[in-house]
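#structure-requests
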Amino acid sequence: MITAGPTREPLDTVRFLSNPSSGRMGYAIAAAAKAAGHRVTLVSGPVELPSPRGVRVIRVQTAAEMLAAASQAFRAADGAIFAAAVCDYRPRRTVRRKLPKSTKATSLELLPTADIAATLGRLKGRRVTIAFALEDHDARRHAEVKLRKKNCDAILLNGPENVGAPTGRFELLTRGGAWETWPVASKRAIARRIVQLFERLAAAR
């Protein structure tokens, strides 16, 4: 099971909170996993990408919808790769009509969304899970915290420069291992490497 793309958290009927994730990395991983002979379920936020051939795609909008779909797919999976850029917050209140523009300042109360990787990490058992960490400062330290919090077998660290780009630069940390820097490569090439990593971790079980 693979998650990909952003989520959207609605403010009203036409506005939402989101992020610039293109979904390219997650979709490339899904295609690479399928090419390697795996049965793949891709839980995707809203992106402008065609479905990878032969991959079951479940399309969602919000973090809550992604959690529900990912939880269902995870039950039958032997592992998961969490590549989605899930919104960390959602509005406490969604208005069911378009809010009119005002000249006065306004405030927005936000609530944290569920951490999908951490939630499913608590249920993983012997399954393999790999997560991503996008950081712009104290990157390795933050990624190490996320590796423990999400109970993952490995975490891939990248920066804002990777968002929407056809290539990427990643650093890898496996549980109990040392940091490994991967060279800049196309996301297709990185996806194949991630699938190989998943297979090695699964074989070690």
